[in-house]
Structure formats: C-alpha cells, structure tokens
Queue: 3 jobs
Job 1
Amino acid sequence: MVTYRDAGVDIYKEDRVIRALISQITFKRNDSFKPCEELIGHYAGAIEFGDYYLVLCTDGVGSKMVVAKMANRYDTVAIDMIAMNVNDAISIGAEPVALVDYIAVEDIDENIARQIGKGLNEGLKEANISLIGGETATLPDIVKGIDIAGTVLAVVRRDKVITGRDIKKGDVIVGLRSSGIHSNGLSLARKVFFEIGNMDIHHELPHGKTVGEELLTPTRIYVKPVLEMIKKVKVKGLAHITGGGFRKLRRLKKDVVYLIDNLPEPHPIFNEIQRVGNVPDEEMFRTFNMGIGFCVIVDKKDSEKVIEIANHHNIPAYVIGKVLKEVEIGDEVIKNKVVVKYKNKYIVIE
C-alpha cells in the first residue's frame, strides 16, 4: 500500500508551509491598485483596475517533466503549463488574455526547444491567449533537466467575479471530464509504475496505452466552454480539480457539504495506479482528479444547459453531486467537508 506522502509529497505539509510563508507577508498596496481581499486563498489573485480586476495565476508542469525527459518527448508539456494557469483563472470567472513563460534548463538543444514551442502554440490556441514575453535561463548548478513555468494575466469585471458566495443548499455540481491524469499526482504515479511495478515508459497497460502515453496526455483546457457557460447561465462556483482532488471545492463556499455521489467510471489510468500500487480509495481521491478535471456549480434548472455547452465543446459532462448543509454517515453528522460516495462507501476528504 503506497500513498502520495510515500512518494515524497505531503499535501498537508504543503498547506502548513504556505501558511507559514504567508504569515510573514504583511505589506499590501492600498491605492487604486489594491488587491481584492475576497480572492485571497482562492484560485487566483487580483488587483483593482477601474471597473475590472486584473487577475494573475502562476504555475508550472511539475514532475511531469521527469516523464517527458524519460520519454524524450517535450511537445505536450507546455500545454500542461498553460492549462494549469488558465483553468485556475477561469475559476473566478476571469477571461485569460496573455502569458509570460519561464524555462529553466540544465542544458537545452534546438530540437527540444522546437518541441516545447509546438506545445506552447497549441496551448495558446486552445486557451485563446497571446504569449507576450518570457525568460529562458541556463542553470546547470541548480536545474537538472528542464522546468517550465508561466504566469497568466486574465480580466474580469468587478461585478462579474465568481467566488462561490452564492452557492446554496440544493445546487448541483456538474463535473467536466478530465483528459486523464492531468498534471497532479505524477510523483505517486511514477513511484507506482517505475518503482513498485518495475515498468518502463514503453510498458503497455491492459487497456492498450503505454505508461508514457498516459502520463504525458496533456491537461484539458476548459477556457472556451466555461466562459460560454458564464455568459449563458448563472454560474455560482467553479473549481479546477488538481492536487488534492475534490478538496479544491473547499476554496469556494466553506459552510456547506459538497456531496459527490454520482461519479462516472474513472479513467483506466487511475484503476491501474490503484491496482499496481495498492493505493487506498481515500488516497486516490486526495491525490488525483479521478476523471473529473473541473466542476461547475449551478442551480439544478441550469445543469442541462451547462452539460449541453460542455458536450458542444466535445467534453463529456455529468451531474456528479449536490450541495447540502450536512450529511449523515451512520451516527456521524458531517458538516463543512467534501464527501465522496465511491464503491458504496463514503469517503470524507479532509
């Protein structure tokens, strides 16, 4: 039995480290460009800019770069970097408009650069944003391999920002299908396949794909369908399901229970990770997206329209759960948590 912590990633320790870092930061600009207090701790930060918020997100590819190096394939990883940023930006209702990137390398050749550029172009097109600058640094004493990160600028009218404040009991959670593992949990997946399973990048899994193909499938970009949903229905909450899985819903309204009780079958990659690594159900849901890469919370009457828009963009979507004030599990009353019903048992995600 293996956990994310065994693979070197402790999400609860990361939470404590972030709190420790933030506790030392007290300065805030307090003029016409002051930050939006309501968005602190949300998916994206913002500053006031007249009638708008200017929104910033920053993220990288993570240890998926290790898999890219193993496969000597770099043409998809920049899509992941862009996806991780723009999917966060749209989670507050903002429209992404521009990207600056940062590529840190031990050493790089022109072929790898072309591959990265190809992925950048694909991601930019899918997210409908422009690359307006960046930096490439050769750091052989610091970086072993390649790391790619970026920062996205997005905009939203101040009266249109979506924080989750309007979420209420009876609302439904629409889940948008992920393309696969996306860019989170790769440390655990690599430990399971390459150490416990003693596989290599070319090992064919029972469902016909290789380990490399599965782990390098790029993160789905949800910009176009989600922005269309925001225009056509009253969207109350948006959640990008990344590291920590459905815990991410708690970045929205906190005094409710998010009950996930109608999940579609997870992608085969998740079943294989669980089988090979003997990973507990609870750990799977704390680490991976389990087939749902993005959640949209709306009034029940609007759920069909949200699903219709997602399907129009070739993204399967489903009502996967609901918002409640509390959930009774046996003799215990659960409040202010995320609860997943899976394989006829309830998993409380702390």
Job 2
Amino acid sequence: MTAARPIPLSNATLADLPEGIARPTYDRAGLTPGIVHIGLGNFHRAHQAWYTHRLMQQGLARDWAILGAGVRPYDAAMRDRLLAQDCLTTLIELSPDHRAAEVSGPMIDYLPIEPGNASLIAAMADPAIRIVALTVTEGGYYLDPVTGGLDTAHPDIRHDAAHPDTPRTAFGAMAAALRLRLAAGHGPFTGLTCDNLRGNGAILRQTVVGLARLTDPALADWIDRHGAFPNSMVDCIVPATGTAELALVRDFGVADDAPVTHEDFRQWVIEDAFCAGRPDWDRVGATFTADVHAYEMMKIRILNAGHQVLVGAAELLSVPTIADCMTHPRVAALFCKVQTEEILPHVAAVPGMTPPEYLSLIERRFANPAIRDTVRRVAFDGSSRHTGFVLPILRDGLAAGGPIEGLALVEALWARMCAGTREDGTVIEANDPQWAALTEVAASARTRPEAWLAQAAIYGDLAADSVFAPAFCRWLTRIWAQGAEAAIDAYLGG
C-alpha cells in the first residue's frame, strides 16, 4: 500500500493515484454550486459532503456542488490547504479489520475568509444556492442560557444587529443574504444545520429569524413564512487530523494536507421540509422523514451523552482515546451502568431499532481500535455538551423519580476535570471556550462543591434540587478525597 513518493492530490493527478483508491468518476469541471456549507471541518467532509459525492458518482446532483465557507479567522488555514488541492479530500475508512481510501470531490471552491463576510453574503444571495448548511458546533447558536432563546445581549449578536450589512456571525451573513434575495425577488434558501442539537432546525430558525427581527421585522416575517429549516440527525465518528492521520494518507500513496479518517458507519436522518429543492440523498443511504425527533433523541442521549459519561473519568485517569475507555475496566463499567439504568429508560425506540440494540451498536463503534478518537476532542466544550446532552436526561430522571446517582457522578467527574490536572499530576490544557471561568469555579468547588452548581448558565434550578444537589456534592467530595477510581467503585457497588 505504501508508495515511495506520495502523489500530491489535485484534479490533474486523480488518474495517477495508486490503484485501489476510489476517486471521482464525474467531471468536476461540469459541476455547478447549489450548497454553501459554513464551518467546513472534518465532519462535514466525511458525512454530508460524502453523501453528495456518492450521488455524483451515480451521475446525479451535478448542480448541487458545495462552496465551502467560514466566518472565523482560523478557517483561513483550512481554506488554504483545500484550495491548494482543488478542494479534494481523501477519506480513510477505518474498521477493526480493514482500511480503505476514497477521494471525494463535491466541493468546488472555498469562499474567502474576510471581515464583513461580503463574499459569503454574495454567494448565498445567488438564487443558484438553494441550501445553506452549517456545522458550527453545539455551542455556536447564541442560545440564552436561561430562556433558550436568542442571546440578544451577546457581543456578536449586538454587532450584527448594529451592522447588518457587515456581520461577523454566520447567522448575520445568512440574514444579510436573505435580505438581498428578497429585494431581488428571489425565494429564500433552506437553512440546514448538521450540529448535534435537539430540534436543531428549529434552533437555526430561531437564530436567523431572531437576528433579522432586531433590524428588519418585515424580513424576519418573510424568512419565517417562506424559509425552511429542517431538523436533522447526523452520526459518524470522525477524529481530528493529526500527525498519525497525515502519515496514514501518505501510506496510501497520497500527499493530502487535509485528509479525514472516519469509522465504517454513517447515519443521516433529515426532516423532508425544504423550500428550494434538495439532492436525493436518500438514494445513497440518508433517511427523509416527517419526524426526526425520536432518531435525534436516541442518538444524542446514547451516543453524545455517552461520550460525556466517558471523558470526565478518562481525562482524570489519563485514558487517551474513546476506544481505550471501552477497555478500561472502571470507565467501561461506569458507561454500561449509567447507560442501562439512567439513560435508556428515557429513550424511545425508532423504526427497526430499540434503545438496547442501539446501545450495543454504540459500544461496538466506541470500541473500534482503529479509530483514534481522542478523549480531549470529545471532552471539548463541556459547558455546551453537558448542558445540551447530559442535563436534559438528568432532569427527566428527576421528574420520573428514577435513579440519577450515576449522572450526578458524571457531573462531579467533569467538575473535577475542570480543575485542570489529572490524577497523575499532568496538566489538562484549556479545552472549553469558558475554561478560565470553569477552572476558577472548580478550584472553589474542591472545598465547597455547591459552588460548581451555582453556575446558573449551566445548571439553572438544579442547584437547588433536593435529590441531585446532595448527590453531586457527595460524589465530588469523594473524588477529591479518594480519587476517581474509588468514587466509580462506590457507584458500581451501590
């Protein structure tokens, strides 16, 4: 499989790639754009872009090519890497017993990263663009931590309301482009979020319409009435790209500065509610449905919350990857007990899959040793992920009078993790947009555990709950006094 001289990836070298590497069979020069995707990282290229690529391999969707986009300065480095290789990406599928490489090519350009986002706005204002999709992380939707509505006090939102023609956010840019489309007599595009949020389409609608309403109520009404924001559920484990992944793609004989590794599983469930057409992604494995909610809840609660069950303990115990978590006796046992007793009771079945069956699937996927998905990546932005994934289950458990000791322990392990050191004394580097504030509160919580729960933006009224609050304080006190393993043993033996 190893080539002496890896071939630089580009349109001109596709025919020269080593045998066995799948590549576009369609004429990329004949593609025309129909999608702008904002937040173009590894997940998009391994998931949504792959579905579009697969349609193109069948001779379909030639007018649904993707324009990459970003609104943050750090997106410029990815833009440079991808433009240098004609926006091609090598996707490497890693299963426990085989590896396979495929070059994907549905993305045909990457828009400039610039203050005011003029190029992005102009592209989205073009009526040829019928979908604007996003992967901007769960914490990127400017949600008010108390009401769940748009956080109109956030400096970014205030800026975009004051400068609607030169916005700094993706949502401000979408509103600006929709204003131009309305003025030109064009219909709106569909806003399609691919982030792990419950009711993600409704949240995207709330953010775009709410921001537009701050400056142009008539525009907001038009977007709300004529636009479309489908809910969706996305699933594929896609590790970050580092030195190992760069070496792996070269082992395949390809010089690709932005390769993506991924597991041998994908799922995409989409509400069939588009206002300007859509690709037939269902022809290549996606599911269109009128009700995404049950799929979304199963995935977010078992997989995404499950990740958070693992990573607090894993960071403290210096367990490096999710696969390693599944072979660690205590961490794996914690995961199994919390899932079985405290998460699955609050998950409904979906067509063809019960919650226990889905948990078995997740356990197999998490245990895949070929996927070097780091605990650090999965633990990133815990302040959003615990709020969005774990605490809703905890609230359901409290409302039902069910067990919540394991989830209280999970929260205590996260609080201890945010103190910034592992139990072997090594430092946990900043890994949350709120890291400075979290570490400060975590230090106070060492002797006064209730200080952690006083973070109203995260816990709200849970700080006063007569069942959860004492359980959390008891677990955090035990972790600091006896260590994470002793606390987990106490939970497992309870």
Job 3
Amino acid sequence: MINAFELANTPALSRSALERAAELRDAPDVLEAGWKHAKLLLLNEQNHAFGTATRLHLLAGPDVAKAPPSNAILIAIEGEEESGRHVWAVRGSLPPGPVTTLREAGSLLSPRDAGLFTTAQAVLNWHDAARYCAVCGGPTAAISAGWARRCQSCGREDYPRTDPAVICLVHDGGDRVLLARQPSWPSGRYSLLAGFVEAGESAEACVHREVGEEVGVAVRDIRYLGSQPWPFPRSLMLGYHALADPAQPIIPEPGEIEEARWFSLTEVESAVATMAAAARTTRSRTLTAAATFTPPGAVSIAHGILTAWVQARRARS
C-alpha cells in the first residue's frame, strides 16, 4: 500500500497568481497610455534583479523610456484592467544598489514579487535563445508585448517555450528515501531524482525511465504531488513520489550521478531542520556542518516534497 502524502505548502515559485491580461498584449494604445504609471522590473544578463532577498525594487517606467521598450514584456496588471498599473520586465543594466537572484530570494519574496521575478526570468531567457527563426534562420523581433517573436524573413511566429521535467521522491513506503547527488553540486548536497520529459513520453513514463537510468532502480505506484515553474532556464517541474524496493542494487549513471543512497527519516529530518535554522541565523556554516547532508534549497519544489514527506511520516509515528 502506497504511503500517501501531499505537499504541505505551495511551492515557493508557484505562490503567485498574476493577472496577466493577455487580451491587452496586442492593444498598443492601451499599453502606451498605461506606461505613464507603469512599473518596470530590470534583470541584467546574469538574471540579477534590483532589490533585496525579501523585496524587489521596481522602477517607474517613464524614468527609463518614453514608451514601452520594444524588448520589454508585459508581466502583469495590478488592479482593475481599465485603471490598473502595468508591470513590465526588460533586460538592462541595474542601477547602483543591492541586487538579488531568484535562487537566493525566491522563497523569501512575497507571492507577488516571486511571481513577477519568475515570469520575467523565464520569458527573458526564452527571448535570449529565440533571436533567430528555427525554420529559415532569419532574425526575429518581439511582438505582443514580449509574448511572441516574429521572423523578419518568413513571418513565422514563435511563443515562449517551457520544458516539462519530472522530479520524484523515491521512498520505501516506510522511513527511507533514495537521494542522489550530481558531480557538479557542492559537497554534501543530495536531492531528488529528476529529468526532462522526452518527446512522445508521458510524465509518469519519464519517472520510470529517469529513475531507472540514473540509479538503476525500478519504481511503482507513482503519484503526482504538484508543480512549480523553474526558469533555469525555462522549465516546469512536475513533482511526484513513488515506491521502490531498497533491496534493489543502486547503479549510478556515469557522468550524471556521483553517488546515490538511502537516507533514514532521522537523517532527512535533521538535514531539513538544520537548513531551516541556518536560514534564521548568521551561524549557518556551523549549523550546516551538523547535518548528515545538505538538502535542496527552499526555493525548489524538491525541498517542499522532502519536507512534506518528513511531516507525513512523523504524523504517523
């Protein structure tokens, strides 16, 4: 019988429900009029934003340009659509002052700021990679308030791309979970198994394939938990959990998985608690050293899934 549980909280980057007002994207007169009171989120080439770990600093649109820049994206409308404030995002040099990143701030920002930052980074990343037509190779230009690009040679239109990926907590139905680490990660960091959905493949089939490829373990009773945008550069993480027999041999995929092993509930609980404590104190280095391993960061859905599993297991004990 599968050990059922649910996410205890909405994933950090899924908390905001922006009013995107898609119907205004091709209404240039409305957008130009709204620019007088618009706010602008600047992201530089490294996806750093002007702001702190708890708050984004938006600029007044007219202070940057007389009209919406051709490469800007209409992210959201705040308030009534007829009189609401337009919020845009654009690549640019940041003014002097504090800067932050989505990885650092995503779990600490308000739902509104997290939503603005996530959407802006995802769409701007797509623009960076879609400057030329995939059919004829001609240059493309942004249209529809940044939500599409049109080829200047053949007229083909392209739209922001999101790559689906699965991430799965493999557990034994009891008090053990299978975690792994990639060679490029910081020492001691372990997380859930994950991978991109291939063409013609369902998300559940991808869970089976990715876990089998990465650690050589067969899973069963796959259950969906939730999703989160992950704009690094433009993914959507689909969260699952599944059962596996710990007696199966673990065979790490060469070049992809440096190590994988089963962790106990006590080890996972300690690591999650240590990370939470480190976020509340300046003694983070000392606290992190006390844990068996370092879990995924709070901005990731992996952290939410692991935390929910711990809470569910403790509730049953």
